[in-house]
Amino acid sequence: NGNRWGHNGPYLVTRVVTSLPKQTRDDIKIMPPAAFYPVDWGHISSYFSSPSDRGHLKWISAKIIQLEKEAYAIHLWNKQSRGVNMEEGSIMHHIINKNCIFCLSARSDT
């Protein structure tokens, strides 16, 4: 039931892991939420903004380093980010330009 909270997230992981043979479970590593959800939904729009001053640029640079070290993916919280424009120099601009395989052909500014 995809309408229930967590059905396709944490409960899905639980269902899959418990369906595996016991000896197989020992090889599974459950990552912390920050590995896939490093940005809180309430702050996602700030990841699309270009630096406004030197302090903001320093924060953006540090955040990019942190994301590259700790995150495997970045959930963009579509409900909050779908209307936000990605500005040049933003965290998302850097991440997408460096890592996205197919995004360059889909960009509207090229």
TrEMBL record:
Domain of life, source organism: Eukaryota
Ranges for domain Alpha 1,4-glycosyltransferase: 1-105
Protein name: Alpha 1,4-glycosyltransferase domain-containing protein
